[in-house]
Write a structure and sequence with these properties.
This protein has 17 helices and 29 strands. By secondary structure, the protein is α+β, with helices and mostly antiparallel strands. α5 packs across α6, α6 packs across α10 and α7 crosses α10. The structure holds zinc ion.
Amino acid sequence: MPARLIGLLIAFVLMAHGSPAAAQGAADPIRYTLSFPAPHTHYVEVAATVPTGSRPDVELMMAVWTPGSYMVREYARHVEAVTAADPGGRALTVEKTEKNRWTVATGGAASVTVRYRVYAREMTVRTNWVEADFAMLNGAPTFMTLPDGMMRPHEVAIEPAEGWSRSITGLPEMPGGEHRYRAPDFDTLVDSPIVIGNPAVYEFTVDGTRHYLANVGEAGLFDGARAARDLEVLVREHLRFWGSLPYDKYVVLNVLTSVPGQIGGGGLEHKNSTLLMASRWATRTRQSYLAWLELASHEIFHVWNVKRLRPVELGPFNYEDEVFTRSLWMAEGVTDYFAELLVHQAGLSTQGEYLASLSAKIDEVQTTPGRLVQPVDLASFDAWIRYYRPDENSPNVSVSYYSKGAVLGFLLDAEIRLATRDERDLGDVLRAAYEQFSGGRGFTPEEFRAVAEEVAGVDLGSFWASAVEGTAELDYDEALDAFGLRFRPVAAPSSDRPGRAWLGVNTRNDAGRLVIAQVRRETPAIAAGLNVDDEILAIDDFRVRADQLATRLDQYRPGDEVTLLVARRDQLMEIEVTFGAEPPREWSLEVDPEASAAERQRRAEWLQQSS
Ligand SMILES: [Zn+2]
């Protein structure tokens, strides 16, 4: 036997017996098997074979949150029946040591197999769902890992339930048969949701790269072929914007469903896939289809902005603690700005539809009292305790980093075009930042601002101080002028057109009872002392039911004084209210008929369609 071969054999034997070097190395994967013996009971069964590195015990960890969704979710609460065995099948002791950690006594075995069940019945893009027809699994709520071994490969073999033919995910496929995948590390496993069942799969190629749209639950309603065609057009537009596709394949997992009270839709971004949730009726009306395209566009834009060009705090991830960043207005809001702009530039929405989308964002910011309380960078920082945990007072004290961030994208885009005499725009800022920060390390807020200033060639300090770090009212004049736009004029109230009487509450219909759900600042309701959860029984001695408030208010005028009979925790009381005037909808963008030629030209470039 040649000496070289003997040397190799010795190395192999050392590795097999778990030398310290091998324990630290990336060589030994964790191997998971997923099975669904009774999917109608909403369980996935997990068997994880974990190398021990010859340690007397190993500790396993489950993530408490998942990237892209900034809230501690305590995924371990859905884990049950945790057991462990050595390779000979002998039972080992498992002890729970933290809310999301378990310690297994290895008995000296080179590997242990840990088995557990996960209850999977929460229909969101960041949780799990298993039922008779399909499974939708995310990494964070499914897989335990070694807290000190996350860099090693994590392999997944799936045993589909009876009648399920297909599994689809962004994970790299592994040789050795169907339904086998290999993540190079735990981050990739967490970043790759999996759908198993019988989805309708559409395939297309952009720039030589495979793309898949996998629809679960088309039900003869969702037009998958049309969605795939438009998705291809959209991906080409994103490619045109960024210059290249940074993945080998891209998978859109599109779960079409609706569970009353649980979801309205949404998406979660991943490096080479996205999980979307939408109504199966989404392609049936123009409005809902545009919303679906904008959702898909948002998640595709994240392939670059967030998954690669990222705030410095967002990776490598600590899966057991909150990760705070002040940059979500850029990561989410600016993404939203371009998501909708690219749908338009791809030729999938009209100019009027695009301006309506942007107007809706401006309207949301301008009618949220919290815009004057919470700076948008702080809204980002507090996402964990505010955006993801809203209550009835949220609109009064916080602002959405999605909508305000998108509006800031619009304002910055205009500012940069003006400052550079139309040589550069906000897209150039993102591409320059991508060049600089899409490698190992992300950007700090100061670094992103510096890139923006470099592209703009001007100091953006006052914009940042007031719009990003401050709570001043946003100034739209410059951006409107730049693009030859204006807000559609609304008629001021007058004595012959006084407007509608206004109370300023949001209400809910609680089995026919008219109950106050939200009381906003600067409204007649808060001035009068109306409270959330007050039930409005009558206005001036006349009964008003849940579906009658709007028509009853039509009978009054701003300035009228009335007495409301309310029940507060079942106690009747009378409250005097002076109605205000319903605020006009004043944030609707339209083309300014008096725009100059230069402004019209700039608008044409901004909204130019590539086909
Ligand atoms: Zn997003």
